[in-house]
Amino acid sequence: MSSVVFTTTTTTTTTTTTTTLPPTWDLVGATLSDNFAHYLDLLGRVPGGQIVLRYIRSSYKNDPIRSLFELALFIFALNYFLSSKKKENKSDLIKFSDREIDDLVDEWVPEPLVEDLTPLERWQLNSIPTIKGKNGSHVIINDKPVVNLASSDFLNLNENQNVKEAAKSSISSAGVGACGPPNFYGTQDVHVRLEEDIAKYLDGEQSILYGQDFVTAGSVIAAFLKRGDLCVVDSGVNLAIQKALIVSRCDIEWYNHNDVDHLEKILVELKPGLDKQKPIRRRFIVTEALFASTGDICTLPKIVELKNKYKYRLFLDESLSIGVLGGTGKGVVEHYGIPRSEIAITIGSMALSFASSGGFCVGVEPMVHHQRIQSNAYVFSASLPPYSAKVASQSIREITSNLNSLGRSQLVQTLHDKTLFVYEALTAASKKSPYFEVISSPHSPIVHLSLKAEYRSQLNLPALYGNTTFLAKGKPAKLLNEFDDFYNIESFVLQKVIDFVLLQSNILVSRSKNIIEHENLPLLNPHLLVYVNNGVSKDELTRATQILPVAFAEVLKNVKNEDTLFDLTDDLVMYDEHYKQL
After folding, report:
1. Domain presence at residue 149
2. The sheet that has 313-317: what strands, in order across it?
3. What is the Cα–Cα distance from 314 to 289, expressed in whole angstroms?
4. Domain residues for 529?
5. What pLDDT score was predicted for residue 114?
6. 391 and 447 housed in the same domain
């Protein structure tokens, strides 16, 4: 650093004093400039350094102060964003010995992931039967052969030899997993063939497959609807559609279950406001073909008429109706003789009549192509296992190849005949019984039996369970439904009927199994369900229709009012011991 030296001389004594004065800012700047230029020269020798030099000279005009300031800010930013936000103070750290660590581990009690079952809920778990061996129309429970009227394999294709051979050959060649999502390496030839088979079978332009049936609705609806779009929805739709509507965040208007007059009233009320909107938002009517909650069939001809009149698209869930309704099992559109082109989006499950797994969506080509890049469950989920795709294709061939002289599928016709037989027998028995009634359609292979309205009123049971927030506001309640003692005890009554039938006749039937805390729409009362399938003989179905009225009478003979109903709570709490005796 530069300094200035002054010399002072006197006559008597000569003293030389050297004083160093602070450098001026000009001198500091000159020194920095020299050093800065030196380092810039060094930087220029580094590969790519000339680009940096050109940037500095053009931006900062060789101003060293400004350049250093910018460099300091850059280093500070790197340090701030890359360093840990939580720096440990080493003085606060405590070192434990191995023994102390072991003691702490032994004392630690982890919080449970889910709440423990209460005594009033435990019976639900204990009531699930354990099947030994294969699942089909006849199974082994508690080492006894049992007629299975709790299976949704309506056409009994799980036991079809050709279907078994199709699964076996696919597993031998491709294994049991697709090992990836469809848009990458998860699509194999069997998936492409199945998409073609489903589109041809259901008279659609194209189809798309999903690895899980429950997420199909949630992924398809969310791919086409967003905040501000409108859905007019039947209030009896299944849980998968309820969750799909919530995920899409669209506006929702509910119409009374299967009430087309109320649907038209809502469409009329909405029309003036919709006509004024620019741009026009997307509008859908959403319903099921064959309702899982009640077993009745949607009034499709009137719905199609209304959606055309008021310019809506129709979203239809045919999970339960495919393979069941219509002469060749093509669903509710064949049942009513309506072209598939009237349905904008059709979804369904392959885990029922097709004896496979996964879901599908059928419609026009642009709608399907849109899902291949926008549908979350398609883009981000693993493909359907190859053997499941092979089985579904074979099931479609089994349905369409066995046609009678009228062009109707023999498999589907057999199911129709057995379904009608069970429906008529139980309807006739219900007229003589004070306890139960049949509420499902004569075309539904799941026959729904409910406690009669008069009897439920006598027991002071509510008409609906759960809150109505979702119906009233179109948005789900912020708090979950609470545990309901009435719903629990009514479900337990039906379970006792199921146990009686199983014990006396070796016939297994089922009941609706909803977790009220998970439901968004209010629930109907629990139903006892009889699943008709082709693998059960007429004699076995006759035994079932004869024992069910006896079971209702035996279980409910001493239940006269609310007090006697809740006297069953003791049996409910001790159900695990009771079930072991069965």
Report:
1. no
2. 206-210, 359-363, 345-349, 313-317, 283-288, 230-234, 251-255
3. 12
4. 407-581
5. 81
6. no
Q: CA 449, CA 530: separation in Å to the nearest integer?
A: 8
Angstrom distance (rounded) from CA 244 to CA 247: 5
Beta strands in 153-264 (DSSP E): 206-210, 230-234, 251-255
Residues of the chain with pLDDT under 70: 1-37, 39-40, 43, 56-64, 84-92, 275, 277, 576-582
pTM of the model: 0.81
List C-alpha distances in Å: 326 to 202, 246, 350: 11, 32, 17
Domain finish residue from 401, 435, 462: 401
For 111-129, write each residue's pLDDT tens digit.
888 888 888 888 998 899 9
Residue 324: Cβ-neighbour burial (10 angstroms; 0-12, 13-18, 19+):
buried
* Residue 136 in domain: no
Instruction: Please tell me whether residues 392 and 414 are part of one structural domain.
Output: no
CATH number at residue 188: 3.40.640.10
Structure-block tokens of residue 45 = 């020798």
For residue 63, the SS3 value is coil
Nearest partner of 381 among 214, 248, 212, 244, judged by Cα = 212
H-assigned helices in 23-107: 25-45, 49-60, 64-82, 98-107
pLDDT value at residue 89? 61
Residue 496 corresponds to which tokens in the numbers above?
């006792």
Does residue 385 share a domain with residue 350? Answer: yes
